[in-house]
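Lay summary. Proteins are chains of building blocks that fold into shapes, and those shapes determine what they do. In this project we predict the shape from the chain. Here is one chain we studied, written as its sequence of building blocks.
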Amino acid sequence: MNLKNCDKQDLKGLLSSANDHDGNHIIFVRYDGVVCLETLLDDITPAIWDIKNKGKFKFRCNSFARGAGYVGKKAAKSEEWVNRLFNELKFAWEKNKENLIILED
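And here is the predicted shape, written in a compact code that computers can read:
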């Protein structure tokens, strides 16, 4: 999925590719617009992930807790969640945001 040319179906595919119970997840955007979703290993906090990946991403969302329903097939079927996440990612990309973007509940 690339924010330069994508739609909500692309995001649904990305979300459904992850297993919500595998661990915490981070969704991030590279400098070329590619959106990536990564499962964090149990010993990696978001802060450690940021340090290890400094310079490799333009911005990322706050992490998604294991089992919270933010990723996976069920999350991909939630039109409300997909619309919200898609709009936040597109907005951050278009406004040239960097580092962390916070998705409020």
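What the prediction tells us: The radius of gyration is 13 Å.
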